[in-house]
Amino acid sequence: MTDTPATPPAPESPRPVSARLDDMDAPWPLRPWVMAAICVVAGLIFHLLIDRPYDAPDVAWRDALAAFVAISAVVFVLGVELRRWHWAAGFALLWGAVMGLIVWHSAGYNLNGSPIEWPFWSGILAVLVATPLFQTRRDVAPDARFWRLWQMPYARLHSHAWTDAVIGAAGLAFVGVTFLLVTLIGEMFHLIGIELIRDLLRGEWFGWMLAGAAFGGSVGLLRERDRLVSTLQRLVMIVLAVLAPVLAAALLLFLLSLLGTGLQKLWDAGFSTAGLMLGVAAFAVLLANAVIGNGAEDRSANRVLRAAAAVLAVAVLPLAIIAAVSMGLRIGQYGWTPERIWGVIAVGVALAYGLAGLWAVAKERGAFDDRLRPLQQRLAIALMLLAAFLALPVLDFGTISTRDQLARLESGAVKVEKFDWAALAFDFGPSGRKALAELARSPRPERANLAKWALAAKNRWDLHDSGDGIDAKEAAFAAKMIRDRVRVLPADKALPDEVYALIDRRGACRTAMCVAYVLADDRVALVSQVSGIGFFAHNPKSGDWADDYRTTRPARQPGDSAADLATATVEVRPVTQRQFFVDGKPAGEPFE
User: What's the domain of life for this entry (predicted)?
Assistant: First the structure.
């Protein structure tokens, strides 16, 4: 390590004894008040930017600016020191601008989409990893040359990462305690007729300002006593280290059991195997780091704990391999989606950490942590750069997914009625909507009709039977879309638009012909080759049509599954049945 301290130790002076862990950090008594004030202002601005009626359209620039304010304030409060405070301000403003750009792009990417999508979480991950890297470089760099990140002292970097986590968690806990206390005080004054505090709590602006004051003040207070926080951090690491043998033993038994049971049971479990394996792998990395500590002098002297840490470091690789196989099977069955692309990236990161752990244990065995630490530092830097790159609007995962899903549709790998039209409309961004517009002009009627149906939907729930009421616009649109695929009998009868909308919600007539049989003015039966027979009834009180579940029987296909309902003879006949009665009451189902 060739870097020199950023600021030489202060000369001896008759000042109060500092509670700071680093002697280069002079006491800053006003810090809690300064941090609380910054977060109060940030909370008020954030509220003003996001405050709008629930039914008002989203405004991308307001969401982006709100993200800029929130991220900049939190990053600055967590990472600032008096020395080189302008570095912290620049770092915070940079990441705030990056996250604002991410939110601005995500807000307009999907129709009715939320700005809090996968790119946003990727950006948050980049911020979380970048903050301790910045803090360490600020402490030891002789100047602003940041391209030598891999040469930073691991002990200080590791300590910053854990301290940030402890202080951040404690700050959030203090916010909760603060709200509880203010609520109790408000109720106490309510008993004597003073409603001021209760009225303030009802205002969202006050809530955001109170949260900002509590978080900023608590973080500032803890930073001024980070010698105490360091002790708390070590306590947390000791507690977590105790869990390492438990997880190590469980992983050994699990992996050995797979040799006998095989992997098929994992695929049949009905749960996301890849997600579970990645979660366990992340927990294994966390516990292994709790055992090995900040450096050789900080590693646990307990042999059982050190052996458990080695097992955990090695176990990450097989867990990542299982996750990779699971993800590959899923993609082979259902194709690419943005979520699966993110999943593959997460698997790649887990594989990198698994290979690093295996290499370190194979090379150094008992002292594997000496080789693992520099590898983890490089992996952290790479993870930060990767997460930041993926969060930016550089790669369009929606375009990749759209191209793959259309190829599966063209090849016949997925049938038209099983195709995920909702994903194309609401999950794949502009590329998905453009593909739907092209499919709507397809000469194949079933594809064109389904594409038009997906394009016209106001939200993804309109593409499923949600059970909600039907407005006149939806009913008229449904009647127009599927009228030519619903044969109405008797021929002199007509269906209300509401019934067409109910039929459309069932989805049975989007790709196949159906028959709607008007049994009475207030009752209609639907005959479909897809969903069997169902009933709709008119409610005279509300004036609405709805599914008549009382008379609908379990779906049964029409007698001839190959019948052409466009021309087949469809009629209603009385059927005589025999059934047992006991004391005049029916017993069992009809048997003939």
Answer: Bacteria
Q: Which DSSP symbol is given to 416?
A: G
Both tokens of 442, joined, read 């397809």
Distance CA 378, CA 303 (A): 27
Computed on alpha carbons and rounded to an integer, the radius of gyration of the chain in Å comes to 32
At residue 2, the pLDDT reads: 44
- How far is Cα 5 from Cα 8, in angstroms, rounded to an integer? 6
Q: What does the alpha-carbon distance between residue 346 and residue 354 come to, in Å, rounded to a whole number?
A: 12
Cβ atoms of residues 27 and 18 within 8 Å: yes
Query: What are the b/e assignments for 405-443, b being 16+ CB within 10 Å?
Result: bbeebeeeebebeebbbbbbbbbbbebbbebbeebbeee
Report the alpha-carbon angle 282-286-290, nearest 5: 170
Residue-level length of the chain:
592
- Interatomic CA distance for residues 428 and 437, integer angstroms: 13
β-bridge partners, 380: none
Report whether pLDDT(461) > 80.
Answer: no
> What's the CA gap between 43 and 155, in Å, rounded?
34
Q: Which residues pair with 535 in a beta bridge?
A: 525
Measured CA distances, 583 to 427, 451, 579, 587, 592 (Å): 60, 57, 13, 10, 20
Give the pLDDT band of residue 553 (cuts 50, 70, 90): very low
- Answer for the pair 372, 313: CB distance below 8 angstroms, yes or no: yes
Q: Give the pair of three-digit tokens for residue 426.
A: 């609401």
Contact 51, 204 (CB under 8 A): yes
Question: What is the per-residue DSSP string for 455-489?
Answer: HH-SSGGGGS-------HHHHHHHHHHHGGGEEEE
What are the two backbone dihedrals, phi and then psi, of residue 99, each rounded to the nearest 5 degrees? -70, -35
Cis peptide leading into 490, omega within 30 of 0? Answer: yes
**Cα(527)–Cα(516) distance, rounded to whole angstroms?**
6
Burial environment of residue 467 by CB neighbours within 10 A (0 to 12, 13 to 18, 19 or more): exposed
Calpha distance 436→450 (Å, rounded): 9
Percentage of the chain lying above the pLDDT 70 cut: 84
- For 400-415, what is the mean pLDDT? 89
Average of per-residue pLDDT values in the chain: 82
Q: Please state the φ and ψ torsions of residue 553, each to the nearest 5 degrees.
A: -100, 165
The pTM assigned to this predicted structure is 0.73
Query: Helix 445-456 and helix 472-482: axis angle, to 10°?
Result: 170
